[in-house]
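Teaching note: in complex prediction, the entire set of molecules is handled at once rather than each chain in isolation. The prompt given to students was simply: 'Predict the structure of this complex.' The entities are:
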Amino acid sequence: GQQVMQIPQYQHVQEGEDFTTYCNSSTTLSNIQWYKQRPGGHPVFLIQLVKSGEVKKQKRLTFQFGEAKKNSSLHITATQTTDVGTYFCAVIRFNKFYFGSGTKLNVKP
Amino acid sequence: DSGVTQTPKHLITATGQRVTLRCSPRSGDLSVYWYQQSLDQGLQFLIQYYNGEERAKGNILERFSAQQFPDLHSELNLSSLELGDSALYFCASSAYLAGGKVYEQFFGPGTRLTVL
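The expected output is the structure of the full assembly:
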């Protein structure tokens, strides 16, 4: 079954606008990872969240882990064309990695 | 460059054939993972090996098999290929996965398999 739901599937923004993608699980997660895959490229690890309510920032990217550890979000402030790509969340259960379906971000200059 | 290498980069074959995809993990990484990514789809976890032993199995078809060798490189064997097996196959490696502590995965560039 679906381990983690990710929304939206697609997001088209104008350069400078903000962007957010969400991952939701029906069960409590021990941790969650976020990856970015550029068009034609391979997934690249961005961050891992493990603590309830954790918030981490990487320049214009803000990652949050929900208090109940059932959801997470990635927020990009003032998108740039270099942010184009697909963003995936990934959870681990019984040594198996489950990736969300991804949010494809397109940024119009 | 993630440090993970995969060969070949592209593979074109016919239905019913068998192919082998090869992956060399980052130096020092003991865990190897295989994923399938169909066109515009997410990543489907296939299988994980840790230091030569199978650790976890995902949605891997019976026609597919994998192994990790003593030098830690891994091979994914796909047999009786069907049109639907056309996809991008990624290998990833990580340092360690134990006791609830999870490490980031480093992905290779992938092998694009086309079955005609």
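Point out the following to students. Chain B has a mean pLDDT of 92. The CA atoms of residues 7 and 111 of chain B lie 7 Å apart.
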